[in-house]
Amino acid sequence: MTSPQHVLPPRSKAMVSTVRTQRRRKHLMVPGQPRPPQRSTSITTIQRWVLSSLAFVTVEHMAAGVVIAAVFTDPGKTGTQLGLLAVAAAFATVAVSAALLIHQKSLLSPWLVLAAVPSSVGAYFCFWN
Fold first, then answer.
1. Residue 96, Cβ neighbours under 10 Å: how many?
2. Tens digit of pLDDT for each residue in 86-124?
3. How far is CA 34 from the centre of its chain?
4. pLDDT of amino acid 10
5. Burial of 116 (C-beta count, 10 Å sphere; 0-12/13-18/19+)
6. Which own/partner pairs from 72-77 qualify as long-range (CB within 8 Å, at least 24 positions apart)?
7. 99 close to 52: Cβ distance less than 8 angstroms
8. DSSP state, residue 45
9. DSSP codes, 90-106
10. Which of 14, 23, 59, 125 is deepest in the core (most CB within 10 A)?
């Protein structure tokens, strides 16, 4: 017994032309064509972003730790809690200011509102929770 042969339908010219006009994928190298222009990001720009990210995240973690200390302080010591929240706000302000200075931006920026977030969250958990 012979196995049945699979017969493919004949190709039409429309099918052949659609196969040939497919766009080349951009991630592949095409021999004989010049490389596409690359985005030029200087090493200084990358260093600024890395340094500002590390400074901001590190100091914000310190501010968050002070807020956690304020939350777990005895509820009867309101003055201590307020002092710790003020220190956390100062740390957060330093973090945002450091990031702005690293990027050589003005210190008067809407980003300074971000400095109030850790202390506001801490005040909520200390006094209204």
1. 22
2. 999 999 999 999 999 999 999 999 999 999 999 999 999
3. 33
4. 61
5. middle
6. 73/126, 75/126
7. yes
8. H
9. HHHHHHHHHHHHHTT--
10. 59
